[in-house]
Write a structure and sequence with these properties.
about 10% strand; 3 strands; Serine Threonine Protein Phosphatase 5, Tetratricopeptide repeat; single chain; three-stranded mixed sheet; 2 domains; mainly alpha
């Protein structure tokens, strides 16, 4: 394995799930066990996941504060805040996704997997949770499960370039599936133009396939 290639970062954008909207009402009623979820795909700009639930106004405030702590890299405090949120609003997938990402950043892959899996129990088609879980699987050497998770994310939104890049790298470095790597590097480059690093990896894969001299 090329040492330079093995150092590639396989990561989603920091706290990607901040783009998700959680509708809140000023009420003391907890979220139901399974919250209605809508995934809107806008091919040109991405996707939006909306969860509509009646949660106490204070919970929404606490949630925003926890995310603010994570943005300040105060992981322990942010995680503690999110842990209280998932108790108050167990039917929402969004806080569990954020919690899974936060635990991943803190180096606790077991806790990250637990919360991402629980988020998918609420919303099985959550592309961010699927992509993040794929990263956890890859880091714990469950490469086929990682592939399935990335592919599930892409089945929801084919233009999800983080998952596309992660799948390409997985196929390239860990599964020795060069055709899969080429296909997904090319699909990624069609979405994220001008990524010179991925362009170099694609050229290397094409060379190993005998498509370039």
């Amino acid at each position: 394995m090329n040492a330079a290639l093995s150092a590639r970062l396989i990561r989603s954008a920091l706290m990607t799930s901040l783009s998700i909207v959680v509708a809140a009402c000023n009420t003391t009623t907890q979220a139901v066990k399974r919250t209605p979820v809508r995934i809107d795909i806008q091919e040109a700009v991405g996707f939006t996941i909306t969860e509509e639930a009646r949660i106490p106004g204070a919970v929404r405030v606490d949630y925003d504060q926890a995310l603010g702590l994570l943005e300040q890299n105060r992981l322990e405090d942010g995680i503690a805040g999110l842990e209280s949120i998932v108790v108050e609003a167990p039917g929402l997938s969004t806080p569990r996704v954020d919690l899974g990402i936060a635990y991943h950043r803190a180096g606790d892959l077991e806790a990250a997997e637990t919360h991402l899996t629980q988020a998918l129990e609420v919303n099985p088609r959550h592309p961010i949770a699927l992509n993040e879980l794929g990263i956890v699987y890859r880091k714990t050497a469950r490469f086929e499960e990682a592939r399935e998770s990335y592919e599930a994310a892409l089945a929801v939104y084919p233009g999800y370039h983080y998952a596309r890049r992660n799948l390409a790298i997985l196929c390239d470095l860990y599964l020795d599936d060069l055709n899969c790597a080429r296909t997904n590097y090319e699909a990624y480059m069609a979405t994220v133009r001008g990524d010179e690093e991925v362009s170099m990896w694609l050229k290397d894969v094409r060379y190993r396939l005998g498509l370039e001299e």
